[in-house]
Amino acid sequence: MPGPVFLEGNRSTLRPIEEADLEFLQAQVNDPRIWRLIGRSRPLNREQEREFFEDVVCGDENVSLLIVDESTPIGTVALNWNDLEAQTAELGYWIAPDHQRQGYGSDAVERVLEYGFDQLGLHRIEARVFELNEPSRRLLESVGFTQEGIHRDVEFIDGEYQDAYWFGLLEDEWRGRDE
């Protein structure tokens, strides 16, 4: 799955998602260890994955990147514009189960945050995490996000309603994190 490197991380590289990546994406998003954590409850077939690729990944309202370790795809990370005038976007990411808990998510998120604040001029980046996804909550907190609220019983996953925790990070908080 070739493609030019867009951002270089410490553990991985980030590159644009290409049509050749659709099989990997569909297989991972249909893995219960992924779809549960990202709040999906229905499978995606090839045509639906292609539509997502064409409508979202290829759209102008986000930056969607494949996380790659050498030549192996291991996940995705994206910034989706919420409000261009207010310079806000929502962060989304997932890591394939065989590559979780190895630092790839933190590395990719840090690179995308840096890109969002430095290159896109974003003022605020937010993220949503379901209550059953404790590792993702810890990741967001480790890179400086603050939990701002809870949407109660917002998604039905595995026969139970799940809360969604909303996190936010402002540009000045990102820049001041090492002070």
Automatic annotation (TrEMBL):
GO CC, alphabetical: cytoplasm
Domain of life (superkingdom): Archaea
Domain (N-acetyltransferase): residue spans on this chain: 12-172
InterPro entries for the chain: Acyl_CoA_acyltransferase, GNAT_dom, Ribosomal_N-acetyltransferase
GO MF annotation terms: protein N-terminal-serine acetyltransferase activity; protein-N-terminal-alanine acetyltransferase activity
One Pfam assignment: Acetyltransf_3
CDD domains according to UniProt: NAT_SF (cd04301)
Xref: PANTHER family: RIBOSOMAL-PROTEIN-SERINE ACETYLTRANSFERASE (PTHR43441)
Record's protein name: GNAT family N-acetyltransferase
Source species: Natrinema halophilum
